[in-house]
Amino acid sequence: MEAEQWLIDRMEAEDTRYLVHFSPISFGWDAGEWGSWYPDVRAKGAEGLYLTTEKEKYMWQEGWLEQHNRILEAAYSMQHSQPLFVCGDIHTQAAGWIKGSGELSFEDDPIPSLLTGSLSVDKGGFPSGGLRGIEAQPPTMLTVEEELPSYEKAGFTIIDFTPEKITVQFFGWKHGEDSVSDISTLEPHFVFEVVP
Question: What is the reported pTM?
């Protein structure tokens, strides 16, 4: 609770132009993993794996989602600072706007969030590879407008901050598909902008 209160106090201070949360757990995307904020688990249907809350997640605690929502509420309440949530742990790239969580609505001022990918991930390290077998996607209880749905290439992200806006450039590269010599000349495959 002390760490959560510190985050909320920082957001309430509103003494910066931008307030960036570098979270070890993603806000806005899930792959049905045990340690996420969300109660979603993977289930298999005719179309393959999908996320659901119809099955109980092993040892999941409702307090995790409640804390997630308190942090989002504090970000949404900011009037003079622009929040941005950034996470690299799901091993894919994605960008979008969180418009709601359960009964909470952020429709009139959506919260930007992104997944930065991982420079060295390949094959089984992606959400759809290895044990997970499913692309990262918004969990069932969130409303997320995805501008960049899950993009599974190892790569990197450059975030530029200016007084006018935040510009996020996503670069992708994949072993076995792309040449090492391509890395120095990569162009962004997607650009995401946040204008306060």
Answer: 0.93
Among all chains, which residue has been given the structure tokens 């996607």?
137
121: left (phi over 0), alpha (psi -120 to 50) or beta: beta
Distance CA 20, CA 26 (A): 13
Return the exposure string of 27-46: e unless at least 16 CB atoms fall within 10 Å of the residue's CB, then b. bbbbbbbeebbbbbbbeeee
Calpha distance 84→167 (Å, rounded): 11
Average pLDDT over residues 93-100: 97
Dmax over CA atoms of the chain, in Å, equals: 51
In the chain, domain spans: 2-194
- Residue 120: pLDDT band (50, 70, 90) is low
